[in-house]
Amino acid sequence: MELSPLSVILLLAALIHHGHTQVKPTPAVTITPNPAFSGETVTLRCVIGGEVRQWTYIWENDYYLVSTSRTQEFSLISVTHSHSGEYTCKGAVTGTSGYSYTSPAVTLTVSAETPKPELTSSFKGAALIGNPLTLYCTLNQSAGWRFYWSKHSQTPENETTTETHSYTIRSVSVSDGGQYWCRAGRGNPVYYTQYSDALWVHVTDTSLLVALIVHPSRSQHFTNDSLSLSCEGQSNSAGWRVRRYTHRERVSDCSSGWGSVTGSTCNISSLSSSHTGVYWCESESGVSSNPVNITVHSGAVILDSSVHPVTEGDSLTLHCLYHHTKSSNLTADFYKEGLFLLTQTTGEMTIRTVSKSDEGLYHCKLLEGGESPQSWISVRGTSRAPSSVFRLLSSLMAASPYLLVTIILVVKWNRAGGSVSITPAVAMDLCCLSPGPLSLLF
Fold this sequence. Notes:
Layout: H1 5-19, E1 28-32, E2 36-37, E3 42-47, E4 55-61, E5 64-69, E6 73-76, E7 85-93, E8 106-108, E9 110-111, E10 118-121, E11 133-138, E12 146-151, E13 160-162, E14 166-169, E15 178-186, E16 191-192, E17 199-201, E18 210-215, E19 220-222, E20 227-233, E21 241-246, E22 250-253, E23 260-262, E24 265-268, E25 277-282, E26 292-297, E27 301-304, E28 310-311, E29 316-322, E30 332-336, E31 339-344, E32 348-351, E33 360-366, E34 375-377, E35 379-380, H2 387-399, H3 403-407, E36 409-414, E37 419-424
Parallel strand pairs: 2-9, 19-26, 28-35
Antiparallel strand pairs: 1-3, 3-6, 4-5, 4-7, 7-8, 10-11, 11-14, 12-13, 12-15, 15-16, 15-17, 18-20, 20-24, 21-22, 21-25, 23-24, 25-26, 27-29, 29-32, 30-31, 30-33, 33-34, 36-37
């Protein structure tokens, strides 16, 4: 079929017009972070494709106008639960009457509760000196968090920051023992979660020169009782001081007012709940003893438990103490990790041979009324020299007692790592030992 000249002209005009007609774009909305928490800053972004670059962005929340701006991003500062809902955007072509389509709605969810992470450790029991230790700060929420780590001996300004939820100590030392916390943060300004519950990291080293001695020797105490804390050891403890961490004061010395100092001993004449915290000895050079957890309870019942780690194979007795009587004829229920263990009419419970499986949180309840706080019982392994050391020394003695004097060697066993090292030393006294009492060397 032939077209008339007029039809050709009209067809060409339509084609030309169609070529210059732009397709009406559909925007897309992104919301970060989502879900969010009360107090966070939330950023909404409207992405519109096509050739038009000069858009005015129109935001609506559940069909109510929220904002009009010349930029793609729109921020909600310090959101609350009322900001939850569906958000859409569309674009208006600047200087014309043209519009884009309205974007599909995206739902923003704002939680009123501040999240709280869980802090766990790669070790279930005491950490071994020289080995790596990893702490995990678990937060089952949306992404974008940085993680902040603190210890009882640190101030909040000195928190360690990581981009991942784990923090690794590559070679554990005694000073790494103590109480740890973590929290997470994201955004600008930074929105912080709550702090996790405290996690105790126990590090055992029998070669410590100075230890913190607590009297009475238990981790829980009644208010108004007295307490003595001493830095004692095989060497001179002069220059050592008693320090503590509490949520109120953070890190402070006994001399700062919460106790009276006599030499390397700190005395507290009348305990209050504000004395609850982590205590340790520290030298002038910054070397620390193992930390001790002290809980001061204003209630009528406490658990009398070992303030220091218990050695595997030893016996352990837990006493349920009542503030208003010295009587031992008290019926007490004992619990581990919140689970009932047994009832004792004597008010005490004994574990005759302690094993690693006995490690955990214990507390007690009295029939007379009252419940103690929880206390962590730490169990450390036994230390025995490897039999190869005894065989080596026995062979040398059998060959000739004077051979040791000639070689001038002393075999030393590293209890922490379980390794054997031979170093030059004067071993004159060894010549007079028989193979029998070699165990005395260790």
